[in-house]
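Notebook, p. 212. Picked up where the previous page left off. The plan for this session was modest: take the two constructs that came back from the sequencing core last week, fold each one, and keep the raw output in the notebook itself so nobody has to go hunting through shared drives later. Recording the first one now, exactly as returned: residue sequence, then the C-alpha cell string.
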Amino acid sequence: MSFDFKNLIVYQKAKKFHNASMLEIKRNKFPDYSKNQLSRASFSIALNIAEGSGRFSRKDRRNFFVIARSSLLECIAIFDILSDQNYISKSRFQQIEDEADEISRMLFSLIRKLE
C-alpha cells in the first residue's frame, strides 16, 4: 500500500525539519521543558500534514494544515528563545528559521488553495 502524503514535498521537508530538531536537542543541553515541547511540536508538523492529506473535505484538510503551520511557528518561537539564551548560535537559528520559512510558505499556499 502506498501512502500519498509521503510524496508531498512539504511532508518530506517537515520530516527533515523534525529530524534536524531532534538532532539539535541531542547536540545541545536544552532545558528539559524545551526539549519536550520542541520534540512534540516538530513531530506535530509532519503528523498533521499526513493526517490532513487523508481527509476528504477541503475544510478538514485545511484545518490540519493550519495546525501543522502553527506547530512550525511554535518551533521557531522555541528556537528563538533558545538562541536568546545562547543554547544555539544566532547563525544556526537563522539556518533553522530559513528552513522553517520554506515549509511555512508551502503550508500557507496549501491552506489558501483550500479556502
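Okay, moving on. Second construct, recorded in the same format:
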Amino acid sequence: MNQHRNEVALPSFADAGTLVARQLKNFAKRHKVISGSYVFGILFLLLVGSGTKLTMDQMREYDHIMSTIDLQAEFEASEYFARTNNAYRQTKGWFSCDSLCQRNKRRMEDAAASLEDIRREGYARMSDAKSVAGIFSEIGVEEVKDSFWKYYNAGKRFAKKQSMWDAMFVGMRSMSRDESMAEYLLKMVVQVLINFSLGLVGALCVFIFGVWGIIKSYQADPFTAVVFFVGSCCAGFAFVSTYLFALFGATAGGLYSVAKVIESNARIEGGGGRRQNVQNHAHVY
C-alpha cells in the first residue's frame, strides 16, 4: 500500500520577497503616521546633513564668547567642593553630626553653591555662544549626533551584555530540560532580537527626552526649535527602525535558508527512499 504524506513546501526566495514587500506596503498604508515619520526622518537627515557652515564673523564671535568661560575657576571650585565634601563625610556619624561635622557641612554646602553658580554662569555663556551658531549649524547638528550615538552605543552595549547573561541562563535551563542544540539556538536568537529591540528603543526614548535640552541651549525661536525637535526624533526613529528591520530581516533570511536546506535534503532522502521501495517491489515480482 502506498502512503501519501501531505507536505507543506516553503515558498521560493522570490515568492518570499514578494510576500514581505506586500506586507510592508500594507503596513505603510494602515499606519500612515509611522510611515510618514519614517520618510520625514530620512528626508531630514538628507537635508540637514552635517549642518550649515559658520561664517567668519560667526566663528569669530563664537570663539570670543567661549573664551570668556572661566574653566580654571570651575576646576578650582570643583576641587574645593571635593575636599569639603570628603571632610564632611569623614566627620559625619551614622546617626549624629557634632559641631565639627556641622561646620564641615556648612563649608561643603557653601562650596556646592559656589560651584553651581560658576557652572550656571558658564552654561549661560556657552548658550550665548551657541545662539550665535544656531541649532542648524554644524556645531548644533554635530552635538545632537554625538548625543544620539552615545545613547545608541549604550543601548547596543546593554543588548550584548544582556545576551551574554541570557546565553548562560538559557543554556542551564536547556540542559536541565534535555533540550536539543537546535532548540537552544532558536531560543537564543529570539532572546537576542528582544534584547536589541529593548536596548535600541530605550536608547531612542532617552535621546528624545534629552534632545530638547540641547535645542533649548541654542536659544532657537519656537518654530525652529519645534521643527528641529520633530526632525531629530523622526531621524532617530528612522535609523533605529531601519537597523532593527535589517537585523530581523537578516535573522529571518538565515532561518529561512536553513529551513530550505533541510527541506531540500528531506526531499532528496524521500526520493531515494521511494526509488529503493520501487526496486524492492520489482525484485519481488
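Notes on construct two before I forget. Residues 1-6 have pLDDT under 50 and may be disordered.
Flagging for discussion at group meeting.
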